[in-house]
Amino acid sequence: MNHKKVISMIVIALILCSSVFLIFRYQVVNKNKDNLYGVHEEVFIHENQLIHASNVDFKIKRAQVVRKQSGIKVFINLELQKTGVTNFGFKKNNSNFFENMDVATTDFSFSMNPTIESIYNLKINKTFDNFKQGKLTTPQIEFDIPKTLLESSNNKLKFRFLVPKGKTNSYIKYSLLLK
Q1: Which letter, b or e, does each residue of 22-60 get, where b requires 16 or more Cβ atoms within 10 Å of its Cβ?
Q2: Which end of the chain has the smaller Cβ count within 10 Å, N or C?
């Protein structure tokens, strides 16, 4: 009987010590919000509004939604200028801004990334080279949304651009409601 009491006391002591340690680690990890990954803020913008975000200035010159038999095609004309080190896609010094752009419904039932052709055309036109050098670039990004995805949602579409917030691992989501 005495042996069982000693083992149960050791188990209880281990549980208490590990609980105290885990609570302490939780507080240390979550103490600084800037160390957390993800989107911490959403800002709704409109066309031709100049945004001075962290390390990038941009303006959505024109957003056009074209309805077709097979679905919807969205064209986004931008002005982008790199003003510092960019870390798109959680990658250090990554200038591939298209990784952080998509079109989604307001209820988040689906999200579409830019078309491969759109990205390929940007690379051919040296858009990325100009952006990396801090020159003003004016890319046109295209999104193809199949009709099958549209049938599952009655909500409006919005263009989203996640911009890294300084040197942190968090992002500000800039959203433009599409007509």
Answers
A1: eeeeeeeeeeeeeeeeeeeeeeebeeeeeeebbbbebbb
A2: N
pLDDT digits (tens, 9 = 90+) for 153-170: 667 889 999 888 876 678
Q: Output the six-digit token pair for 135.
A: 């020159």
Phi and psi torsions of 54, nearest 5°: -65, 115
pTM over 0.90: no
* CA quadruple 49, 84, 138, 170: dihedral sign: negative
DSSP H or E run through 144? strand 140-146
> Which residue, 28, 32, 63, is CA-closest to 45?
63
Per-residue model confidence as pLDDT tens digits over 18-76: 988 888 888 777 666 555 567 778 899 999 999 998 889 999 999 999 988 888 889 99
What backbone phi and psi angles, to 5 degrees, belong to 38?
Answer: 115, -175
